[in-house]
Design goal:
By secondary structure, this protein is an alpha/beta fold. It is built from twelve helices and nine strands. The structure holds S-adenosyl-L-homocysteine.
């Protein structure tokens, strides 16, 4: 999966995404990211200006439409060329197969589905795990990071498909939000985490917060690891974990808990057990 980030501060993105799990995934070729400097597309050859005052007055500068549009067009062109290359690189057999399915599908998909361009903005829908999973299905994702007062509305209308926020507060720029989203999306791409299962059992994977976890030693500062986790009885461990997830979610995120109850009505044959999970919680 490829992330393309339009930014005025490419070094922030490059440094922020090159370490630890994402850095390793990039080295392995599972994900790739490029930070493209919007300033390189400024039509102002002398000062490489990318912002100007807002019409109608008001404090602060606004990012102008033209450099962002040209930056986007360059990225879009590269993505399309790469796709064409992939088709050309195939062996005869692969091409014969592709003729029937793949390339034809590529064309259909290209026509049916636009390249997704995310403008990170406090005016967007608030990012969550479900959105991360949805974005993780894409082959390419483009992010636009605003700065200063934001971006000229006209270029947003022209190129943006998704408006996404990381929360109800205002930051100085879109680089951190883009990195937050890229991190959350990347770890759902198969192969990025060593153990793909962990993404499923983690918080929000099943609509609940994750249960408490413990590592060595068995006792620390007088606190013991819950005995059931040492029992080796996987069924009991799973039951305990679900119970703990429910308790924790009810306490810390009651709205998620309520939603989980709606989404997971007790099944007739499992009624008894569900009552047990919820014992002392409801
Ligand atoms: N004037 C704008 C805020 C501009 S903040 C407004 O009132 O809506 C500058 C840039 O930071 C934005 O263009 C956006 O890209 C980014 N940004 C700030 N807060 C953000 C948030 N909560 N989520 C995502 N991006 C954010």
């Amino acid at each position: 999966m490829n992330f393309h980030v339009m930014t005025l501060f490419p070094e922030m993105i490059e440094q922020g995404l090159s370490t630890s799990i994402l850095g390793r995934a990039k080295e392995k070729g599972i994900i790739d990211f490029e930070a493209v400097n919007i300033r390189d597309f400024s039509a102002d050859m002398k000062h490489h200006k990318v912002d100007d005052y807002t019409y109608g007055g008001g404090a602060g500068m606004l990012m102008q439409a033209q450099p962002i549009y040209d930056c986007y067009k360059a990225i879009e062109k590269r993505i399309e060329e790469n796709k064409d290359c992939k088709c050309i690189d195939r062996t005869d057999d692969e091409n014969a197969l592709a003729e029937n399915i793949d390339c034809k599908d590529d064309l259909d998909v290209k026509e049916a589905r636009r390249l997704r361009v995310i403008y990170v903005t406090p005016q967007g829908a608030v990012f969550n795990q479900q959105m991360a999973a949805d974005f993780a299905k894409e082959e390419d994702l483009v992010f636009l990071c605003g700065h200063y007062e934001g971006v000229d509305e006209r270029v947003l209308e022209e190129i943006v498909t998704d408006y996404v926020s990381i929360g109800d507060y205002v930051l100085t720029g879109g680089e951190l939000p883009a990195m937050v989203m890229i991190d959350a999306i990347s770890r759902l791409v198969p192969g990025v985490l060593n153990n793909d299962e962990s993404a499923m059992t983690e918080s929000f994977g099943n609509g609940l917060l994750e249960y408490p976890q413990y590592s060595r030693p068995e006792e620390w500062m007088g606190k013991k690891v819950p005995g059931i986790l040492l029992s080796g009885d996987h069924k009991k461990v799973d039951e305990w974990r679900l119970e703990q997830s429910l308790l924790r979610t009810k306490e810390r995120r009651p709205e998620l808990y309520e939603q989980w109850l709606i989404d997971n009505p007790p099944k007739p044959e499992k009624k008894k057990r569900r009552r047990k999970h919820n014992e002392g919680i409801l």
